[in-house]
Amino acid sequence: MRTRVKICGLTRRADVDAAVAAGVDAVGFVFHPPSPRAVSPHDARDLCAGLPPFVTAVGLFVDASPEYIRSTLDQVPLELLQFHGEEAPELCASFGRRWIKAIRMRPGVDLAEEQRRYGHAAGLLLDTFDPARPGGTGQRFDWDRIPTALARSIVLAGGLDGENVGEAIRRVRPFGVDVSGGVEASKGIKDHDKIRDFMQRVNDVDFS
C-alpha cells in the first residue's frame, strides 16, 4: 500500500497549488497564532477554495479553546482535525469531525497506552519532542522507538525531508508522512522543487 503524504504549514495559494499538483493526499493549515506558519481562518478559507476531490484539508490546533475551534470550523471547510497539544480525548472527539492526535516522542512515552487513550482517533501522528515548541522542530526522533505493530496506524513526522523520507518509510512503514519545514525555503514559504522531490522520493520507495 502506498504511503500517504500531508504537507503542513501552508500559507500561500501558490504553495497549495504546488502541493496538489505534486500529488499530496492532504494539506495542513496551522491555527496556532504563535507559529510562524499560522494562518487566520479567513485566509485558510480562501486557501481551501478550489481544492480538488480527494485532497483532505486538515486543521492543526494546539490547546485551543473549544470556542476558537468551533469558530474556525464555521469559517473553514476542514475535513480532519489535528490536535498537537495536551488535549483530552473527549475534547478531540467533540467537534463532529474525524481527528488525529499528535504524540510528541518525549522520553518514556508509551505508544500502546496513547493508542488506547486516543482510541477514537483516526490515527496518531508521531513528532519530535521539544519542551519549548509543540512541533515544527525540524528534528527527527529515533524511529526504532515505534513498535512494528503500531506502524500502519501512524503518521510519521519530525525532521522529514527529501533526503531521509525514503529511509523513514522503509524502516517504519507508516500509513503516512507529514512534512513542513523539510520542503520550505523559509518558515511558511514552501519550495516547490523540494515538494516535488519529496513526493518523488516517497513514490520511489520499493517494498519488494
TrEMBL record:
It catalyses: N-(5-phospho-beta-D-ribosyl)anthranilate = 1-(2-carboxyphenylamino)-1-deoxy-D-ribulose 5-phosphate. Keywords: Amino-acid biosynthesis, Aromatic amino acid biosynthesis, Isomerase, Tryptophan biosynthesis. It is an enzyme of class 5 (isomerase). GO terms for biological process: L-tryptophan biosynthetic process. InterPro entries: Aldolase_TIM, PRAI_dom, RibuloseP-bd_barrel, TrpF_fam. Its EC number is 5.3.1.24. Pfam families: PRAI (PF00697). Pathway: Amino-acid biosynthesis; L-tryptophan biosynthesis; L-tryptophan from chorismate: step 3/5. GO terms for molecular function: phosphoribosylanthranilate isomerase activity. Residues 5-200 form the N-(5'phosphoribosyl) anthranilate isomerase (PRAI) domain. Belongs to the TrpF family. This is N-(5'-phosphoribosyl)anthranilate isomerase.
